[in-house]
Amino acid sequence: MKGQNTANDFKPLKIPWDITMPDDDRIRAMHSLLFERYGDLKWWPAETDDEVVIGSILTQNTSWSNVEKCITNLKRNNICSLSALSSLEPDVLAPIIRSSGFYNQKAKRLIDISRIITENYSTLEKMSGFPVDELELFLKDVKGVGRETMDSILSYALHKPVFVVDKYTIRIFSRIGIRGGRLDIDTIKGLISDTLGNDGDMLRNFHAMLVYLGKDHCRTKPLCPECPVRSVCGYFITAGP
Ligand code: SF4
Q1: What number does the ligand 1 atom closest to the CA of 227 have?
Q2: Which of 9, 11, 176, 209 best tests ligand 1's pocket when mutated (most atoms within 8 Å of CB)?
Q3: Dist. CA 30–CA 176, nearest whole Å
């Protein structure tokens, strides 16, 4: 398409990538370049904290557009809250969340987590008064709540200073060349905490900006030429798509 760069138009920069740039400087540079492009995104896309928990279960293995259809259906039926879901049976809920995929399994998981949270804490507001390590131990035992779902609930529903590492984060950090691309969730969380600090709003916005970057540019087939972090990206400068 005329005027639009494609992967085939890609030309590596003529300047050498500074392989000596320490990872913490590279992460700081990523953060400020992303902030210049995206600003304060005020993410996650939900109207209530209950909706964040519901969305974090529904989004497993499906696109967000399918989650939105389910949330709309739940609201239409006046059951888009943990207290309402906790009193339902899976066969009633499953058809309402059909568009999320794996709807029988997700109906059971949504009801289970709603019951467990309301029985143990009553509300998310009361739950948010407990320390992160205690909440992690609690959430780890909830069936269907993996690491990313747990961190999303801690960060976006319970407003804790927790950075969510998802597939976009791992892909971007690997391509940028942080730690030579040898990364796991705890390594990334530790690096970000050591480098950028532990302010919850900053951590949430960094995660949101990485999600946007992953969708806009750092896709499976990356669109590097317009990427805001290309100047610190090892993949762009040394390899190219
Ligand atoms: S420059 Fe390319 S590979 Fe690097 S982060 Fe951007 S889109 Fe991904």
Answers
A1: 6
A2: 176
A3: 9
